[in-house]
Design a protein that fits this description.
The chain is of the alpha/beta class. Helices cover 35% and strands 30% of the residues. It has a domain at 99-160. The longest helix is centred in the C-terminal third of the chain and has 18 residues, at 176-193.
Length: 230
């Protein structure tokens, strides 16, 4: 069953009266439980498509559906609630709150969901252990390595118990050894929790582990390849 769908999706940006077509009539279905990657050169539309699927931006044409809901039909408040309840995000730049500890960063989304303080802390500690950061919950982001920060970001993405995690170039700032371990952890989380993962990346380490690779070129889908079991 498709959990994410793009149907005839297009995106046009206008700068000083000049239009740039970022995506053109893209059709894509992402099945529940997938471990897939959007691939392609810079400027191919990977991040644009990921942002549209994650309700961070709206298409110029076509429609996006999450779990059967047409995003264009939702109010801004309903979209925010959908992102809070059903989506997790992992960004290249980590996007952690620097004045919060690792545990507080993970707890923040749960606080927005109305989870009690005791339950937030219990779940944050369990997630830290799951991403191999047990005992580091009181450290702030700048006291942690890049790989540790990205694992906190993964734990934060999981904290809301989302249906889908969208990861934009999650290994870009990591050395290969750290990137491989992070991807192994993500694959384990995919298998153990059934969370759908969709990456946007040109990193071979990501692409060789994806079970499906969706190649974009010039704003459209060029080809789709089946990959190895993650």
């Amino acid at each position: 069953m498709a959990i994410l769908e793009a149907i005839g999706v297009g995106k046009v940006y206008e700068t000083r009266g000049v239009e740039t077509v970022a995506l053109d009539a893209v059709d894509l279905a992402v099945e529940e439980g997938e471990f897939a990657a959007l691939a392609g050169p810079s400027g191919s539309g990977k991040t644009t498509l990921l942002n549209l699927l994650g309700a961070l931006d709206a298409p110029s044409s076509g429609e996006v559906r999450l779990d059967g809901e047409k995003l264009a039909d939702l109010s801004p408040a309903a979209l925010s609630e959908l992102r809070l309840r059903k989506l997790g995000f992992v960004f290249q730049a980590y996007n952690l709150i620097p004045v919060f500890s690792a545990a507080e960063n993970i707890e923040f989304v749960m606080e927005l969901q109305g989870v009690s303080a005791a339950e937030r802390r219990k779940r944050a500690e369990a997630l830290l252990a799951e991403v191999e950061l047990e005992g580091l919950g009181e450290k702030r982001p700048l006291e942690m390595s890049g790989g540790q920060q990205q694992r906190v970001a993964v734990a934060r993405a999981l904290a809301s118990r989302p249906r889908v995690i969208l990861a934009d170039e999650p290994t870009a700032n990591l050395d290969s050894k750290t990137a491989i371990r992070l991807l192994e952890l993500m694959a384990e989380l995919n298998r153990n929790h059934g969370v759908t993962f969709l990456f946007s990346s040109h990193d071979p380490l990501v692409l060789e582990r994806a079970r499906r690779r969706i190649w974009l070129r010039d704003g459209g889908i060029d080809r789709i390849e089946e990959g190895a079991v993650a």
